[in-house]
Hints:
Layout lengths: L2 H14 L11 E2 L18 E2 L6 E2 L4 E8 L9 E9 L10 E5 L7 H7 L7 H4 L1 E6 L25 H19 L8 H15 L4 E6 L1 H12 L4 E7 L8 H24 L10 H17 L2 E2 L5 E2 L1 H11 L6 H14 L3 H6 L13 E2 L18 H12 L11 H18 L4 H6 L25 E8 L5 H11 L2 E9 L8 H13 L7 E3 L4
Parallel strand pairs: 6-7, 6-8, 8-9, 9-13, 13-14, 14-15
Antiparallel strand pairs: 1-2, 3-12, 4-5, 5-7, 10-11
Helix pairs in contact: 4-13, 5-6, 7-13, 8-9
Amino acid sequence: MPRSRAAAAACALVLASLGTAPAAPAQTPTGTAARGEPQARSQGPRVRWGACPERRVPAAMRCGTVDVPLDHAAPAKGTIKVALARLPATGRGRHLGSLLLNFGGPGAPGIAGLAADPGAFAKLGERYDLVAFDPRGVGHSAPVSCAGSQETGEDAAADAAAQLAALRAVAKRCELASGPVLPYVGTVHVARDLDVVRRALGDAKLNYLGFSYGTRLGAVHAAQFPKSTGRMVLDGVDTLSEPLAEQALATARGQQRALDRFLSWCAHQPGCVYGTNTRSAKEQVDDLVARLDRRPLIGGDGSYVTGQDVAGSIGAALYSPHAWPALADALKLAEEHADPVGLLQLGGPTGPSDEDDGGDDAGDDGWEESQGPGAVPADNADAALAAVNCADDPDRSNDTASPALIEKELQALRPEFEKVSKIFGPGRLMTVLACYGRPAGTDFIRRIDRPGAPRMLLVGTRGDPATPYEWTEETARRLGSAVVLDHKGDGHTGYLTSPCVREYADRFLLDGRLPSGTRSCPAGE
């Protein structure tokens, strides 16, 4: 890869790793006699339920918006609309109100997530109205953008001064393209939105199930509104306190730990390309990445895979043990036949299929097809990811960044990152630059300390490549009211893959039963 292209790709990696949509047509106001639609207050926030903006949704799903202040500290600045989706409770037992769901991110739309797989929460959906939302800045809730992408261009050289200038230019482009919402994007603002949503739904307390980044959001809400926090389960627990560099190092360590567990699994499978010796297997994977960084693997159709592409594909596959057989096959193709197709497929789209899932078709006004004022920008997910992470990080700002500081910091950190993981360390190291060129974020999250919230359940998975288990224990100490569920399995989060985790979570959310102390779930159960 040419030097200038490598530098541009590095800047894009840094940024990636880290207009208001119109309301749906008003059909059923909150406060009707329909089951699962509690009476709204005569004054205060309201939701009007109607058709959903997604092309295909379950038949019972309805969508709407609620107005929230652009700036909760200064309501006179106006409002934005937060988009919601709701599936009414299906059972005949005692109705428990709403259960808000957040599937992670930051930058992931909740409406599309719930529409894609509502069956995963069917038991909870018997007694709860399942409610998903697009957080502010995401999807249909005043989406942010960076005018197409966060790539810095081919002219971004590899020196620190050019990289900093490129990052600042991208930050300016994001500011211009996103409009007034960008300074008010971040977890603290979204957590305040959730309290408005809770009141609009007519719930006395917020019952919540959050995954990955959604755990950070849930914890911040509990810290701000402990008295209105209800039953809360946080799965794949994010850190609340570590600086960006420490987060990146912990993530590289977690990814390497997950890779080691994959290689141990592979060694016990017939035909594993790396044989049965896990130590030599690790060395061979390291060598594959280094070799392809020097000379990319070229496919018959002209596609090619670099070492960093391989690292990205491996990292994606480690999120779920169900992807491990495909990863083993992809590595075998690459090693024995110099064929990159398997690795390319691992790094491909992971969103919902376009196949009809039996739900309603919303018609031709789905945002995927739209180019009008209500369209979600194509780069929204990446733009929101960077915006939220930087809004939550108080360590970077325009005032303190300088080329000399960047160069010094990278040189000091590089040996430790490479020691933790030769494969994942270099890429994770570059993420420490992600927020240079942007305003310093809030320090509220760092200062959370036993806020007096009710007891909640925190799930940590030992082989999680994205949210290391130690973050679960750290966040439990910070919250001071958490029960830890130690899931001994692999993959990112546990609820969807472990019946044991699901039983603990459902029992608490449905019946309020929560044991004391740390409990555990074996791998595979």
